[in-house]
Each structure stands twice: as C-alpha cells, then as structure tokens.
Design goal:
The complex is a heterodimer of chains A (548) and B (702).
Chain A: H1 2-7, H2 18-37, H3 41-50, H4 56-76, H5 92-101, H6 113-120, E1 124-125, E2 132-134, E3 141-144, H7 157-170, H8 178-182, H9 185-198, E4 202-206, H10 209-220, E5 226-230, H11 235-244, E6 247-251, H12 256-273, E7 280-285, H13 297-307, E8 310-314, H14 329-333, E9 342-346, E10 356-360, H15 362-371, H16 373-376, H17 383-398, H18 401-417, E11 454-455, E12 464-469, H19 476-494, E13 496-497, E14 499-500, E15 516-519, H20 526-545
Parallel strand pairs in A: 3-13, 5-6, 5-7, 7-8, 8-9
Antiparallel strand pairs in A: 2-3, 4-10, 9-10, 11-12, 12-15, 14-15
Helix pairs in contact in A: 2-3, 2-4, 3-4, 7-17, 9-17, 10-11, 12-13, 18-20, 19-20
Chain B: H1 2-7, H2 43-52, H3 54-66, H4 70-84, H5 93-100, H6 107-113, H7 164-191, H8 215-220, E1 232-233, E2 239-246, E3 255-265, H9 279-292, E4 305-306, H10 307-320, E5 324-328, H11 331-342, E6 348-352, H12 357-366, E7 369-373, H13 378-391, E8 403-408, H14 420-430, E9 433-437, H15 452-456, E10 465-469, E11 479-483, H16 485-494, H17 496-500, H18 506-520, E12 522-523, H19 536-541, E13 549-550, H20 562-565, H21 568-590, E14 603-607, H22 611-622, E15 632-633, E16 635-637, E17 648-652, H23 659-676, H24 687-692, H25 694-699
Parallel strand pairs in B: 3-15, 6-7, 6-8, 8-9, 9-10, 12-13
Antiparallel strand pairs in B: 1-2, 2-3, 5-11, 10-11, 14-17, 16-17
The chains are: A alpha/beta (548), B alpha/beta (702).
Bound molecules: pyridoxal-5'-phosphate (PLP).
Pyridoxal-5'-phosphate sits between chains B (330-332, 335, 356, 358, 408, 412, 437, 439-440, 469, 471, 479) and A (377-379).
Pfam families (chain A): Aminotran_1_2 (PF00155)
EC number (chain A): 2.3.1.50
Family (chain A): Belongs to the class-II pyridoxal-phosphate-dependent aminotransferase family.
Chain lengths: 548, 702
C-alpha cells in the first residue's frame, strides 16, 4: 500500500508525533476505501503515489485536502509529456556527447519574398490617424479607407476632451489587474453602459479585443465540450477554440443548412454514445472579419434553441457598425441581445478607443472575472479608454443619423463597384448577392456581367468590405502581388489608402483567399466616396483587367 | 567595495547630514524611539556610515556628536531641516507636533499626526505633483542602488518553513472549509434549487459552469470576496481611493455606499511611481491626446502604424540595449500571440513552474511540447536539459528542432529573481534559446532600471528574446518584445497581434515614451546627470553602457521638464524604489515574519498560511485598530495563484512611497502580526529598532 511506503521513512519526524501519524494513516485508509467508490478516485490515488515521498504525514493530510482541488487542475492543464516508458538510460558521458552534438535550428527562419513584400508594404501614418492621413511627414493627404472608423470616432473632439479630463483624474495606466485594485469606477460605468446599450444583464471589459475573444471561449468550453463553428470565423476565435480543447465541428461558412446538418450529426452521435450531457456551443461572427458577410442570426437562434446550444457571437466588427443605433446584428435583425448567450465585442473598432468586452447574463460575466485568463492575469484597461468608450456609446445612442450616413456611404460605394461584379446591383441598392450568398471560398456565381472581375461577398450593410478577384492568378503569392499593385495604384492615382487583407499565412487553420479590404466611414463625404470608388474601379480594371 | 558606489545618491552640491528629514514617531512604551542618528552612533552604525557614506560622514558625525540630549537632537532636526529640501521647506504642523511630544506620544497625538497624512506632505514643496500620488521624500540617505551583490544568494532554494503546528492548522482549516462546502452544497441543491440553477442541468442544457470546477470559487474564495476586486477611483499611485461598499455576510452582492476611503497603496505595480495625473509625463500625454486623439484604430499591418509607434519601438530598443523592439497593445497578449510565432510542433518549451498564465497560454497555442522545472532551480533546469537533449522527442527520439527556455526576470507572486548568471552559463553549454519575461523586473530592477540584465551586468544581446510590459513600472499599458533585428522582423510577420489585434493607442505610447525617456535622460541637452561618482564601478565592469535617449528619437512636439530630460528624476525614482524594497523586505524579516523573495525585489510576499488570516489581515490593514488609523490596502493571494498552503499577502512597493510610509507599514504589520500570530520566523528586532536602523539594514548583507 502506498501508506506503508510512506511511513517507512519517518526520518525527520519527532517521536511524540508518531501516534498522531498513525492515527492519521488509519483515517486515511478508511477514507481511501471510501474514495475508491467515488468516481475519479484513480486520479487521487495516482496523486498520492507521486507526491511528497519523503514527508509522509504531511502528504497524507495534503492529499485529503487538495485532492478535490487538484482534480480540477488536472483536467485542464498541460503536464507535458514526461519521459515515460520510452526512456533510454544513458551514461553521463554519452549525454555530454549528445549535448555537444545537438545543433538547434535557428530561432527565426530567413524571410521569403512574400515576407519582404508584407514588411515593406506596411504604411506608416505621420501624425494623427483618421479619415484623412499623411503617409510621409510632408506628403500629401490621402483618404484612409483601412481603419475601422465607422462613425468617425477616431477623430472625435468630444472624446479627446473626455480623455484629457480622465487623464487629469486617473493618469494613464491602472497598474493592476481588476482583481487587485484595478477595477476603477469608470470600468464599472462602461460595463453598465455596454450592458444597457445592448440590453443584456451585464458585461465585462478586457484590455484588448483579440485577447478577449480568445480567452472567453476557453473560459466556458472545456475538454469534452462540443463547439460547432462557422468555417469563416476570425483568427482570434480560432485561437480560443484551440485553447479550449473542446471537440470542434465546422460548418460551411454562412450555410444554415450545413449548420443544421452538423447539429443533427452531433445529436445523433451523442444519442449513440449516451453518457453525460455536455456543454454545446455555436460560435460565429456577426459581421465576419474575413469577408464582411453577415450571420443569419434569426436562423441560428432558431437552431440553437432547437438543439439546445449556447451561442457565442463575436461582434468585434459589427458592434457600432450595423443596426439603427449601431448595437450590432441583434439590433439589425430586431432580436433581443439577451437571446445570445455571449456577445463578444471590441471597443477598438466600433468605438475607436481600445479593449474588448463580453456581454451576457450575470453568471456569464461573473464567471469570467475569475476564470478567464485574459481578465484575471492582465492589467485592466486604461481609464481614458473606458471613459471615451462610454462617451462613444452615448453618441451612438443619441445620434442615429450617423448610422444612416454610414449606410448611405456604403451603398454608394457598393453601387459604383458593382459594375465590376458578376451581378450588378439594382438602383435601390437591393443586393443581388444577398446575405446568404456564397462564401469567398466557394465557386462564384455565374457571370452575366462580362466585365466582371471582382466578387464582393460582404453584406450590403457592412462597412467592412472585402474584394476578391474572380479569376485569380494561380498562386497565392502572385495574387497577393497583384492586389498590392492595385493598392499602390489607388494610392498614387486617387490618393486613397486601402489595404490587402493581411493574413498570417501558414498559421491559419483555413487559409483565407487573398482579398482587398476597404473600410467605409460616416465621416467621408459623398464626393470622397465617389472619387475613391471610381479610383478603385479604374485601378482594378487597369491592373487586373489587362491580364486577360 | 561596491557598497560606497551603491550608496551615494546626492544630486545637489550641498552635503547634507545623515539625519533623516522626518523624525520617527515615538510610541509609548518603546524607549528606543528616536531615529538612529539622533543618538550617538553605536560602533557598528558608525562603521557602516564610514563605509557607505564617505561624503556625508563628517557632517553627520558633527551633527550627532553635538546632539547629546534628546531636546538638542530635536532642535538639531529643526536646524538641519533645510539642508535636505531643495525648495525652502518648512516643517508643517505635523512634524512639529511629533517633535514636541516625541518622548511620550499618546495615541491621540499619533492619530493627530496621521490625520491627513496621505494627502499632505510634512514639508512644503513647490511641485504640481500631488503628494497623494507621489510622496515627497528628499532625504538623500534613503536611497539605494539596485545591483547584484555576489555575496548575497540570488535565490534560496529552500524557503523558510513555518512550524508544524501552523501547517497542521492550515490543512485543518482547508479540510473544514471543504467539508462545510460540500455539506452546504448537498443541502443547498435539495432545498434551495433556485440558487444552484446555473450549476445544474436544466431544460436539456448542461450546466454552464461545472459544479466541481466552481467549488473552490463558491466555497472558499467567496468567503474572501470583500478583499478582492475592491473598486477604486483615481490614480493608483502612492495612495488609492477606495469606493466604500457593503454587502451581506455571504458576500453574494456588494453595494456602493457612496463614501470614499483614501488608503496607502502597497498593492499596485506602480514601481517607479509613473502612475500619475500630473507632472511631466501626464503633460506629454495631454499634448498627445490633443494631437493624435486616443485611438490606435485597426491592426498594425493595416494602416494603423503611426510614426509614434516607430519612435516608441526605437526608444524601447535603445532602453534595453538591443537592436529592435516591437510593441503590442496588451501585456498578456504579448506573450500569448508571440510565443506561437517562435516555436511550433517539434520544438520544446521549457518553462519555470511558476511562469505567468500568459506564457502558458502562448505555449499551449504554439503546439510545441512543454516541460516544466522547479521554480528558479538552475540545477533542476540543467538536469532537465540533459534529459531532453539526450532523449530527443518522445517516441521518435529525433532531436528537438529547437529548445526555448522561458523564464521570468522577477516572479510576481514569489518576489524571486532569476539566477541570470547561472542561466547564461547553462545557455552557453546547452545551446537553448532564452526567452525572459521582464514584466515585473523592467524598470524596477538594476542600477539603470533596465531589468535583470542590468542588475547582473549581463549583456542583454545575449538573451534571444526579451519580453516585458508597460503596465507596471511605466504606468502605461501593453507590452514589448525585443531582440535582434531578424527576430523582430520575423515576429512582425508572424505575430498574431500585428495582423489581427488593435494597435497601441497614442496616449499610451506617449506615456511610455515620456516615462522611459525620463529614466534614461535625453541627450544632448544637459549631458550626464549630476553625481559623477555614480556607477563608476559598474560602468567599468559592464559590457553595455546604458546611455541616454537621443533627442532625435523623440517626437519633435515633445517637451519634457528639465528634471525628466536630464534623468535626475528617473534616477531618484530608481534609487528610492531600491531603498524602499530593501528596507521593507529586511525589516519584515527582522520582525520575524516569513518573507519570500530577494531583498532587492519590490514585490514582497509575506506568508500567512491559514486561509482565515488572509481575510483578517486584509481587513485589519484597512481598518486599523491601533492608534494610527491610516488605512492600508494590501493584496492577498491564495490558491490557485500560489500552492494551497502558502497563502500570502503581497506588497508591491513603489518609488512614490516615502520612508515614513514604509515605517507605517512596518508598524501596521507588527501590530497585525502580533494579533494574528504571524511571526513564525525568529524575531530579532523590535519594530522601532527596525525603523531606527533602516539605513543600516538596507546596507547590510544577510
Ligand atoms: C510575468 C508576466 N507576464 C505578463 C503579464 C501580463 O501583462 P499585462 O498585465 O500588461 O497584460 C504579467 C502581468 O501580470 C506578468 O506578471
């Protein structure tokens, strides 16, 4: 028995303590037999065997007490693969030789041509960022269509004032995580503001949207849980899924029939296997970062209720962009936000400050305050980014006109570009390529328009527009170069800055196809939009049209 | 020989005496109340004075020898007062009230002395910086240089153990808590189902949080909840303003009462006191907001790289003494989005067992294999390295592609310093790549505030990847990765944050620029900081001379006040932090507390063990029961951030604390320590003795 081997080495235990030790051992033995009947007892036994071999009575006690807690830990932690059975015994001399011989690969690989292209084409903005920027200290001003500045908050004067006031009361950094005196009143106010703006019970803010997304998912989804995710979700969600170690099922991007098929498959499998009820999640984006398509929320909600899933909805792009007040796609479709279990969002895009949030029920938010690593183990958001986000929300609330300007701008832009699309847009702006259109990765629709060279899957209300080539060159690299040519052409001829969608080639789960990314803002005038769209159209025709 | 070089910190040409600016407060019943120098120095004290303060010695000696009686000592304080303060200081009513009653201070006197203690300095000082954010402390003797002393052990592998009865009591407490928790769960689930609904299956949905996972939180942490996440307002500087809250005994909910409590803040990571709403850095940030707004807008690789980003990255690289650097908008994400860009399947990451959650997050994303070694134990690391290199990858035994060892410079829960000299030796022998997370050590450690490399005098370019955060010493937000140009270029291409995460916001960048520049000093205006004899020994023996920032790297619109530009203020901050850290750490040890960590660490964990004491400690520091009622906020940490039994309170000191603040903290710990039976080590000094011998304690090895 393990206990005997323990008490055989009572080296440093004072004699008077031995009876106590024996008592404890017997208590332990009885408890151990009880343990055997508890599910999970093998784990505890394994723990006993390996811990504190030279301090027996201490480990006896410890085992009893920690067992419960340790079990929790063992479930989710990387223990690293130990040497195991595969271990080969070597002499010290052999080890020394092996050490001398071992030559590690270089820490970083040489960059390739595409890498050089990527690095050399990152523009630098001189002076403030915003709708109109300078690309060199004394250069000309260009229209910036690359930043998520949906409502022009990047240059908002009111927000600057609020930021300065906040600076004079709170300084810049908070110097602590929210658990340790990093919860400032302005954080609580922002959380309330977000919750009441969206209409959820509560909200929790994070210091960065990317980290929020990739940390919220694993706070709920654990090993053994089931996640059904859209194939088109963004990189941050991929990372969250990866950390969660749940079982992931993908459904075709934007395809509700496929979603239902996957949900049915999971149900069938679970029925067959039986066993414990597990947590099940659907993960999708409001407006997809990778192509601007919009989720068919009503349908997803219907399926979620039917198959008893929880919905994690990333609104990083759509929050502040769609809906009559910019509340995101829940407002767009007129469904209460409280029907979505967790709404993730970004203050850095729609509100133009910084940080991310998760809105949902009290339980959902409070759980994260203790269990979401990016919230627990990171300093809280600088106060001025919180107060200005509150200001931005109140502007959104009080000025719905901003939204109509934005939508008008988007429509104008799309109409001009639609001349190059397979199905030109009708006058009223009714999209011929609807929200349920095909994904960027699917074969594009038939081509009635013989001038068509591009394909825009983005939703007609999305200020984030991705432009894909209809007949791309054979390699990704060639396509990226071609798109970069378009970007360069537009900036030099029309003074409009757009960008290739930047990807992490080689690190993505599903490599997105190369595309151009355009962001529309309500602070552009109609003239500017017209000029930009026409300029882009000409550049596309010039660069991509000549190839045929 | 290092002692003298480390000590002198005078920046003016006047040579002040060693007499402290503020007399210590005498408590009834403790005879050794006046500060060390108001009594004739003992042989030991004077020896140390000779060794450590050659320039002040003569003057100090003259002052002390003339002051034979206590009354003349008090008078002496009046006369020498002016010498310490740059700007015609006068003693406020507080100081004089202490002086007049220094022999027999009653508790009312003490209470009176401390009434507005946190807001008003003892001396009048012409500065816009609020005393509540950054304490004024002019005494040049309360300074120290944070630098490796080879005679002191870097890391004790065996921490001090408490007596067995403490351990048993701790285990029993947890046993009781766990049993009670299960009993409550058992009955609760049957009789109060509505309270457990989120833990149980309902309508075909599995419980969102498993009952088991949340047991610790519901049944153990909840009892302490009024000590966690206390809401605050204002700057987390030397003091902090708490929003008062009340709630039922079970901590199920809290309500703000609308009241405020200002408390001494020994909890925030504000090491250099740059968290501030006034002063040169805040003014620079103000200007930046007017100029740039507040948004970092989209990801860096889209058009959201500002000139300000490049300037900051250049300055960070210069600060660290490496080729290139890259900033990320969140410290956590700096680790979690860059480690996967460095290693992948087939690589091995070796990680210290106490590494931060963000590192574990990043390693998990990378797909690399992971092994851990015993905290800060370089022998364990070597044994592990020999094993993994000789065994190769599991099953296939193919050699590892590369091995990345990830360690922290200063551990945030332990206060332990990385044994860098040995680590570098291992690196040379075993050819692994080194990744050092300096989140807490950057700015806080080293004679020039450049982190552990600076502290140990090791060339930072020998470390492959330097990582750190701006949330701590610099009072900003975000983090950096620095190293060779190839490394940074590679990371720019592959880091998740560069392509997909928001870029750093301009006011935050400016705070980094301003605080960093003020630590470095800016060339060419006003060349080297005053005090030429500083660092003579260190510069000679050091491979890297950490120079000032060149004014051309800073934005042209930037205007910093002179004390920041010439680096004097930065230097003062480094030296005050070093003194405070060493003083508190040594003092607590002398009082018999079990304290972990290195004495130069500004993070000072004091061990509490029993879970109930955490709650009491936190509450008794906030609502003091002694004569002095100044509230102090502390951080208590327990499982899972620490091993189950070693619950602790963690002090984070700052350059913004004055010596008086530390004195007060020591007295408070002494009070509470006696009341809660926390002095499990051997008490060798009384608290007033510790306070009187502060300088001696700081200077001595032990
Ligand atoms: C070692 C270490 N790395 C990284 C971080 C994360 O930094 P931040 O709080 O800036 O997100 C911390 C913060 O607690 C830390 O201690």
């Amino acid at each position: 028995m393990s206990t005997q081997s323990h008490s055989s080495s009572p080296t440093d235990i004072p004699a008077p303590l031995l009876p106590l030790l024996q008592l404890l051992s017997s208590v332990f033995l009885t408890l151990q037999s009880t343990f055997k009947r508890i599910p999970g007892s093998p784990i505890i036994v394994r723990y006993i065997k390996s811990s504190y071999q030279d301090d027996p009575w201490r480990s006896l006690l410890e085992v009893l007490l920690i067992a419960f807690a340790v079990r929790t830990l063992l479930m989710g932690r990387t223990r690293g693969e130990g040497a195991g059975k595969n271990f080969i015994k070597l002499t010290e001399k052999e080890i020394d030789e092996l050490v001398d011989e071992w030559k590690p690969q270089p820490l970083v690989e040489e960059p390739n041509d595409l890498d050089h292209l990527t690095l050399s084409t990152v523009p630098t903005i001189y002076g403030p960022n915003g709708a109109r920027v300078k690309l060199s200290p004394a250069g000309k001003t260009v229209l910036n269509m690359t930043i998520p500045n949906w409502q022009g908050f990047v240059e908002n004067e009111k927000m600057k004032q609020v930021a300065i006031e906040t600076l004079r009361n709170y300084g810049v950094g908070t110097c602590g995580p929210s658990g340790f005196y990093g919860t400032i009143d302005v954080h609580m106010k922002l959380e309330e503001d977000i919750a009441s703006f969206l209409g959820t019970e509560a909200a929790i803010i994070y210091a960065q949207a990317f980290a929020a997304v990739s940390s919220v998912i694993p706070a709920f989804a654990k090993r053994g849980d089931i996640i059904v995710a859209d194939r088109g979700v963004n990189f941050a969600i991929h990372k969250g899924l990866q950390i969660s170690r749940s079982t992931i099922r993908w459904y075709a991007h934007g395809d509700m029939k496929d979603l239902e098929r996957v949900l049915q498959n999971v149900e069938r499998e679970q029925k067959r296997k039986g066993g414990k009820l597990t947590k099940k999640f659907i993960v999708a984006e409001g407006v997809f970062e990778n192509d601007g398509m919009m989720l068919e929320l009503p349908k997803v909600l219907e399926l979620k209720y039917k198959y008893k899933y929880r919905l994690i909805l990333d609104e990083s792009q759509s929050f502040g962009m769609v809906g009559a007040h910019g509340r995101g796609i829940t407002e767009h479709y007129g469904v209460p936000a409280s029907e979505v279990d967790m709404i993730l969002g970004s203050m850095a895009t729609g509100l133009a400050t910084g940080g991310g949030f998760c809105a949902g029920s009290y339980h959902v938010c409070n759980h994260q305050r203790i269990n979401s690593s990016a919230s627990v183990f990171s300093a809280s958001l600088p106060a001025m980014l919180a107060t200005t986000a509150s200001t931005a929300i109140s502007i959104l609330n009080s000025q719905p006109a901003l939204q109509s300007t934005l939508q008008a701008n988007i429509l104008l832009f799309r109409q001009i570009l639609s001349k190059l699309e397979p199905l030109p847009m009708t006058e009223s702006g009714v999209p011929t390529i609807g929200s349920s259109s095909t994904a960027g990765s699917m074969p594009p629709p038939p081509v009635p328009n013989k001038d068509a060279i591009i394909h825009i899957p983005s939703h007609i209300n999305s200020a984030l527009i991705h432009i894909f080539l209809l007949n791309p060159p054979p390699t990704t690299e060639a396509e990226e170069r071609l798109l970069q040519e378009v970007v360069d052409e537009v900036v030099s001829k029309s003074d409009v800055l757009i960008t290739r969608a930047r990807r992490l080639r080689g690190q993505e789960i599903f490599e997105p196809e190369p595309s151009l990314k355009v962001c529309i803002s309500s602070s552009f005038s109609r003239k500017e939009i017209e000029k930009a769209a026409k300029g882009l159209r000409e550049a596309l025709v010039k660069v991509c049209g000549k190839k045929r | 020989m290092g002692r003298s070089a480390r000590r002198s910190g005078v920046t003016s040409d006047r040579s002040p005496s060693s007499r402290p600016l503020f007399p210590s407060i005498s408590l009834k019943g403790s005879p050794t109340t006046s500060s060390s120098v108001s009594e004739p120095p003992s042989a030991r004290t004077s020896l140390i004075n000779v060794l450590s303060r050659p320039r002040h010695h003569a003057h100090a000696h003259a002052a002390t020898s003339s002051a034979s009686g206590s009354s003349s000592a008090d008078a002496g304080i009046f006369t020498t007062e002016d010498e310490f303060s740059d700007m015609s200081s006068t003693i406020s009513s507080y100081a004089s009230s202490i002086l007049s009653s220094s022999r027999e201070a009653s508790s009312e006197d003490i209470a009176k002395v401390y009434r507005d203690y946190l807001e008003t300095p003892f001396v009048k000082i012409k500065t816009s910086v609020k005393h509540s954010e950054f304490g004024h402390c002019n005494n040049p003797n309360w300074r120290w240089t944070s630098q490796w002393n080879p005679d002191e052990p870097i890391h004790a592998l065996e921490e001090e153990r408490p007596p067995y009865h403490v351990l048993i009591a701790t285990y029993l407490s947890y046993l009781l808590l766990i049993v009670l928790g299960h009993v409550r769960d058992f009955f609760g689930k049957r009789f109060r189902q509505s309270h457990y609904s989120h833990l149980m299956e309902h309508d075909g949905y599995a419980a969102l949080n498993s009952d088991f996972d949340s047991f610790y939180v519901r049944r153990l942490k909840k009892r302490l909840d009024d000590c966690f996440a206390r809401p605050v307002t204002g700057v987390a500087g030397r003091t902090i303003q708490l929003l008062d809250r009340t709630g039922p005994d079970d901590n199920s909910s809290f309500e703000l009462t609308g009241g405020y409590t200002r408390a001494l803040n020994v909890s925030s990571y504000n090491y250099l006191g740059f968290a501030s709403s006034t002063g040169g850095c805040a003014d620079a940030v103000d200007a930046a907001i007017r100029r740039y707004g507040i948004s970092g807008a989209g990801p860096r690789h889209d058009a959201s790289t500002l000139d300000l980003h490049h300037q900051t990255e250049k300055l960070v690289a210069r600060f660290l003494g490496v080729e290139a650097a890259m900033v990320v908008s969140m410290g956590f994400a700096t680790n979690s989005t860059n480690i996967p860009a460095l290693v992948s399947k087939g690589c091995l990451v070796i990680s210290d067992e106490f590494n931060h959650a963000s590192i574990r997050f990043g390693v998990r994303l990378s797909g690399a294999s992971l092994r851990t070694f015993k905290h800060n134990d370089m022998h364990a690391l070597e044994a592990l390295l020999r094993e993994v290199i000789s065994q190769g990858q599991p099953r296939t035994h193919r050699p590892w592609k590369k091995i990345l060892v990830i360690v922290e410079g200063l551990y945030s829960m332990e206060g332990s310093l990385l044994n860098l000299p040995m680590f570098m030796e291992l690196k040379r022998r075993y050819k692994f790549y080194a990744y050092v997370d300096e989140a807490h050590s950057i700015g806080a450690i080293g004679p020039n505030g450049r982190g552990v490399c600076d502290y140990f005098g090791i060339d930072p370019r020998e470390i492959d990847v330097l990582m750190g955060t701006f949330t701590k010493s610099f009072g900003a937000a975000g983090g950096y990765i620095a190293g060779s140009k190839e490394l940074i270029d590679r990371l720019r291409l592959r880091s998740h944050a560069m392509a997909y995460a928001e870029s750093m916001s301009p006011p935050v960048l400016t705070q980094i620029l301003a605080s960093m520049a003020s630590i470095m000093g800016v060339a060419p205006p006003l060349a080297a900081p005053a005090g030429e004899e500083l660092d003579t020994m260190s510069v000679a023996s050091r491979p890297t001379a950490y120079g000032p920032a060149s004014s051309s790297t800073l934005p042209s619109w930037f205007s910093l006040p002179t004390p920041l530009l010439n680096g004097t203020e930065g230097r003062e901050k480094l030296r005050r932090l070093a003194f405070n850290s060493r003083y508190l750490s040594s003092g607590l040890r002398k009082l018999g507390f079990i304290v972990y960590g290195h004495r130069d660490s500004p993070i000072i964990p004091l061990l509490l063990y029993q879970p109930a004491k955490m709650h009491y400690f936190s509450q008794m520091m906030l609502k003091r029961f002694g004569a002095d009622k100044t509230p102090i906020v502390v951080v208590i940490v327990a499982y899972p951030a620490t091993p189950l039994i070693t619950s602790r309170v963690r002090f984070c000191l700052s350059a913004s604390h004055t010596k008086n603040d530390i004195d007060m903290l020591l007295r408070a710990c002494d009070e509470v320590g006696d009341a809660l039976d926390l002095k499990h080590g051997k008490q060798t000094m009384k608290v007033e003795e510790v306070i009187a011998a502060a300088e001696e304690l700081v200077a001595s090895n032990f």
